[in-house]
Amino acid sequence: MESMIDQIRIGIVAIWAVIMTALSPAANALLLLTLFAVVNALVGYQSNSITRHERFSLSKFCRAGIQLMMYMGLVVLLHLAFYIFGDTEKSLFAMKMVSWIAVWGYTVKILQNCLQIAPNTRGLKLLYHVLAVKFVGKLLRELGIDVNDDEIKELRDDDESEATKGTEE
Q: Is 133 helix (H, G, I), strand (E, B) or coil?
């Protein structure tokens, strides 16, 4: 009986080693995503407790966890898809792109929450407007093109609805 348990343990360790070897290039991307998700969750919690006097919300925490798992799953799937076909350079590129897009999204959300905590911080406002591409409306107005933020939002929403129509068909 003990030899059978030992063989099962050896088999599990061998399978785990193969999985970890295949995923080792993705480890840094997964660690980076986890770090930004944790900072986002902490700043979001702090923002909600200061501005709205809300307590810890398990549902928001679960949504943040699901978002992190989706980013991580995408990184792992892309890596494995390219890894299986032996194209490690494209695998690293795809992982980096997904990771940087996720980091950008987390950074915008972190800055948005920081602005709720400290709304009069000019440096945070500038970073948020640049990273969230909020400056486009102001730039267009400076160029003499009369556009308000609602029109830009409508254009963005129209583009998103057309994109979802294309994926549904």
A: coil
Closest CA to 83 of 20, 23, 15, 18: 23
CA angle 102, 32, 107 (to 5 degrees): 45
Say how far apart CA 65 and CA 115 lie, in whole Å.
Answer: 23
Mean pLDDT of 28-47: 89
Write out the two tokens for 78: 């892309």
Q: What's the CA gap between 137 and 28, in Å, rounded?
A: 37
Q: Report the interhelical angle of 88-117 vs 122-131 (nearest 10°).
A: 140
DSSP character at residue 86:
T
Burial classification of residue 103, based on how many CB atoms lie within 10 Å of its CB (0-12 exposed, 13-18 middle, 19 or more buried): middle
Q: How confident is the model at residue 154 (pLDDT cuts 50, 70, 90)?
A: low
pLDDT value of position 82: 87
Predicted TM-score (pTM) of this structure:
0.68
